[in-house]
Amino acid sequence: MPRPRSAVIGLLACLILLVGCTTPAATLPTATPLPSPTTQPTATPTPIPSPTPIPTFAAGSTIAGVDVAGLSLSEVADRLRVALAEPAELDLRAGSTRLRLDPATIDLTVSLDELLDEAAQALATGGPTTIPPRFQFDDAALRDQLAGLATELSVDSTISVLTSTETISRSFAYRPGRTLDLDAAVEAVRAALAKPKPGPIRLKLIPVTTPPPVPLERLREEIEALADELPGVVGLHLIDLTTGEQIGLNDRTVFAGASTIKTAIMLYTYIELSKLSERQEFWMNEMIRYSDNLSANDLLAAAAGGQGTDNAFVGADAMSTLLQEELGLRHTYLYIPFETADYIKLYKPTFRCGPKAPVGAKPYTEMGACLRAEPASMARLYQLIDQCANGEGQLLERYKRLTAKRCQEMLDWLALNNDDSRMVAGLPADVRVEHKSGWIEDMQADVGIVRSPAGDYILAVYYYRPLTAGRSSWSDEVMAPVVTAFSRLVYSAYNPLTLE
Q1: 356: β partners
Q2: Is 275 in contact with 240 (CB distance < 8 Å)?
Q3: Would residue 18 count as lying in a domain?
Q4: Is residue 50 part of a domain?
Q5: Confidence band (pLDDT; 50, 70, 90) for 166?
Q6: Are residues 280 and 429 in the same domain?
Q7: pLDDT digits (tens, 9 = 90+) for 301-324
Q8: Given this model, what pLDDT does residue 475 score?
Q9: How far apart are CA 489 and CA 500, in angstroms?
Q10: Higher pLDDT residue, 33 or 347?
Q11: CB within 8 Å of 410: residues ≥ 6 apart
């Protein structure tokens, strides 16, 4: 039946309405009144961030000598580009001399990039900074420029001749000049360029330790001046073993040979004998070291193939022929052995002598006829031996028994000469001299090779002084110092005394 079902539904709807009507009404929220304009709070604006300050260099900061305090890195770059665009001239000082060096001549530049890189690192520290300049330059060009300036700065050495109240005292001397110490100058410039402000650069002048050479013509003038002060005749010949130059005074005048001829006896012995026996070495030592006449005769005889005085005459004649005809040593010979006057009277041997005086060039001396020497020829004899010792020259070409070693042996013998009162007396004690001296009543001589620190040379000095009435000979005290004086003069030309 459909009506009752509809009634139920209607009843339920009515009940629902009744329940809603009996429930209290819900309380609505109260609206908050708007504040009046006088009491409304002010809104806080959002802050706008300010830019970070650009870092600047602290007070007292310099870069390459330029004040950069308060500047930023970019401002520093601009300032340095202007300040360092053209490096200033370098101010060089040497003593009282002042010179300017153009930076362009050494390609002097400043490495701006390197400075700015270093400046950026220093800026980060916040403190004051000092950065020296970073110069770049051509080292070779700097050395060349300083070498050129050296000629303006250098002071030349001066040569003079010292004389004294003593007649036979004369020597060359030099006052050292000054020259630029080139290595030290380069380092001084380099060190100055590493400073913030280079300032004046002090260059050091050092003494010239090598004296200027004395021209041989100047030496000849002094030799002549010294000879003019002496009574008698001076014969001198000099050969420079480095240059080969030669000078002489009366070097073609013929003198008595005396014992200077014993060097020729030694050479003749070496030419004729392949090897010296122990006995012959003893004679050689006696002849050269002590100028023993009888030992000289024994060597002449041995070289001639025998012994005794007869063979000594043969050897003397053969040696004289060798000297004059084979080696071209004019007026230089020994035709009779030493100390044979009594032998000649007793045994009347056959011998020859040279032509009667006068021979050779003027001025003439009392020279005898059988034993003579010419200064130029004697100097040449030593030159031949020295050349042979150096593996060259006429002796090696002509004589098969000679070798460089054997010629050096001859020089070593001559270095043993015990006479230190003539040539050697004019030289320092440590100088090697290979020489042979000789003397008779009116003549003294010395010939040898001087191994000088500033150059080797050969010197032959002969001094003849005529005997005055009632005098039979001149003493060593009168004659030997003359030879010494010329030896000293020549040595000082090669090695001048130093004046402070």
Answers
A1: none
A2: no
A3: no
A4: no
A5: low
A6: yes
A7: 999 999 999 999 999 999 999 999
A8: 97
A9: 20
A10: 347
A11: 266, 267, 270, 385, 389
